[in-house]
Amino acid sequence: MLIEFERIKLEINEEIAIITMNYPKTLNALSNITLQELSEAIDFIEKKDKVLGVIITGIGKAFVAGADISQMQPYKSEEGRKYAGFAQSIFNKIENLEKPVIGAINGYALGGGCELAMSCDIRIASDKAIFGQTEVNLGVIPCFGGTQRLPRLIGQGKAKELIFTGRMLKAEEAEKIGLVNKVVIHDKLLNEALEMMNLIKSKAPLAVKYSKVAINKGMNLDLLNALELEKDIAGLTFASEDKQEGMDAFLEKREAKFKNK
Questions:
Q1: The pLDDT of residue 67
Q2: Which domains does the chain possess?
Q3: Active site positions, annotated
């Protein structure tokens, strides 16, 4: 299945959805149109029970080069605040989607592009990818989640350095500081993302789903309350058909056949 929007495209093939940022004319900048289309694609995927994972990537030199500066230039206070809130709501939707999301970062991931990448669960970068929270060059702050997700990923000190300086960094440095999970040769990027997603979807889908829920919700709790949450979510998985199948298969020394139930 292929759905082509104006500025993105959505392909669903064998339980994997691939969202491609597809407007190289603006280096896939996050205009209101692009953000709305991304939101609609995520909503569509959320309703498809057969889709077990999502990959987000880009066409051309950029994953997403940032927000749409020509759109933002005339904005005043409340307009800027609403624009930030709109983008945040979509990136939150990606982060909280109860399916694993891999960002396959093909090129420039600057400003909003870096923030989109950080809303993904796992980030695989091309060796040509460039990252940065460059908003201080424009007189604003990262406001699509960057001031909050970046320090949670790489620590406050490093996040402050990158945000305060607006410095761009290559994929290898991004991997070194924990911003991306791995760096691969550019031409193998999508294959690497598909290989990882195929490995993930071979596992019990409910277990993957609830692992994501436990991690995301637990990160906002103190340790003792997070552990209580973990126990409760574990109870849900113990009640599933997939738990019985997984443990039966292990004891019977055969491959499990999970049904997402």
A1: 86
A2: 2-201 (3.90.226.10), 205-251 (1.10.12.10)
A3: 115, 135
